[in-house]
Amino acid sequence: MCSPSGRARRARHELGFTLLELVVAILLVDVAILAVLHTHAVVVRNRNEMRARSAAVDAATARVEQIIASPCVAAAGSTLIPSSAEFWSSSVDATTREISDSMVFGVSARHTFVLRTRSSC
Q1: How big is the CA angle at 47 (ends 43 and 50), to the nearest 5 degrees?
Q2: Residue-level pLDDT at 4
Q3: 8 A C-beta contact, residue 101 and residue 117
């Protein structure tokens, strides 16, 4: 049998959590919250980069379509837009026009892509 003082000690121990258990629980919750916040930041950064890439592809495609619709002559140029730059050229040989449009874009990281195509004159 347990003595009355043993029962009181056991009952007092089972009433709540120790300070160490609370500190460990708080640390685990903090780590989980930080992991979620980090994941959210990565997702937002990737979304913004994809938006910038999409806008750059749309601008380059529009420029290539504009060059194809223009008279068949050699030309070159560049355009500076906030957080991006476009460099394009059109060269003509006997019956073919070669078009190149390169885009440099991105705020946190610089990305580059080039669209190249040929069309008949």
Answers
A1: 140
A2: 57
A3: no
Measured between its terminal Cα atoms, the distance across the chain in Å is 104
Task: List CB contacts of 90: < 8 A, sequence separation 6 or more.
Answer: 67, 73, 74, 75, 76, 97, 98, 99, 100
CB 116 within 8 A of CB 99: yes
Q: What per-residue string of b and e applies to 107-120 under the rule 16 or more CB within 10 Å gives b?
A: eeeeeeeeeeeeee
* Predicted pLDDT of residue 31: 97
Structure tokens at 71: 């008279």
Model pTM above 0.90: no
Work out how many domains the chain is built from and give that number.
Answer: 1
**pLDDT, averaged across the chain:** 88
Instruction: Spell out the SS3 assignment of the chain.
Output: CCCHHHHHHHHHHCCCCCHHHHHHHHHHHHHHHHHHHHHHHHHHHHHHHHHHHHHHHHHHHHHHHHHHHCCCCCEEEEEEECCEEEEEEEEECCCEEEEEEEEEECCCCCEEEEEEEEEEC
